Amino acid sequence: MVRTPDSNAEEKKTAGEAAAEMVRDGMVLGLGTGSTVAWTIKRIGEMVEVGMEVLGVPTSYQAQELAIASGIPLTTLDQDPILDLAIDGVDQISADLTAIKGGGAAHAREKVVASSAQWFVIVADSSKYVDFLSHPVPVEVLPFAARLAQIWIEELGGTPTIRQAKMKDGPVITDNGNFVIDADFGVIEDPGLLAAQLSEIPGVVEHGIFENVDELVVVIDGEVKVFSRV
After folding, report:
1. Rounded-to-integer distance, Cα 109 and Cα 102, Å
2. Any catalytic annotation for residue 110?
3. Do 110 and 185 fall within a single domain?
4. How many structural domains comprise the chain?
5. Residues 189 and 99 in one domain
6. What are 106-115's pLDDT values in tens digits?
7. Which candidate in 11, 17, 110, 215 is catalytic?
8. Beta-carbon-side half-sphere exposure of residue 166 (alpha carbons within 13 Å)
């Protein structure tokens, strides 16, 4: 199937709205960041409008603003540390449900929220579903430690690039006040090992390799498919 911007957009909408059907009355939800899960949040808002009662924990200012605009009542992990369900988007995900996230520079908060949930679901269009991960890994790092982190990433075989902002001069600044290094390792043969190695780098706040995905909702050839971790 030839991919076009329009087909990807339709797949994102379909996958995002399909994932919203997992939400049940009374749930406390983790609300992810990105263009696909935005459709999930909007659909949950429609469900709230007709009487469903839920609470949401957003993973970024973007997700927070969209949730408020959609009429979803919000809470925090301090108030509700155990979530029923977290739904988020992805940059790339493999058949074994290992994911790379962080294109929106929100992966540190996304990982905290996902780890607080009893069930973690990824929504994606077909372009994100691959046999082997090869997307650059976003690494959130303390600005003070950015150069050291780059050296360590190079020693691991990666090519590190500090992500630059598009509407301001200088690096992207995360919601936590840190830099993001995009670390390109080509095809990642052992994501689990790389995740452990990145976590050992001094000054790294969080990396974008997610190994805790429970379920994937993805649209392939116009059909919603659901894959669960075995």
Report:
1. 10
2. yes
3. no
4. 2
5. no
6. 999 999 999 9
7. 110
8. 1
